[in-house]
Amino acid sequence: MKVEREQSLLLRIYYFVLGLLLGVFALGLAFGDGSYLGGAFVGGLALAAFVQAFKRYVEV
Q: What is the DSSP string of 6-47?
């Protein structure tokens, strides 16, 4: 039960940050600045890696 609740919370945080990154990405496109694009992409990859590592930690 506790693990499921943690994963649900983690998923909500993940989607929130993903939405935030997409917002920054859209802003970057709107202003034509490529730096937002790279930052959002790298941030998304780092977040995905963190979520995978945390899932493994919770399972053990």
A: HHHHHHHHHHHHHHHHHHHHHHHHHHT-HHHHHHHHHHHHHH
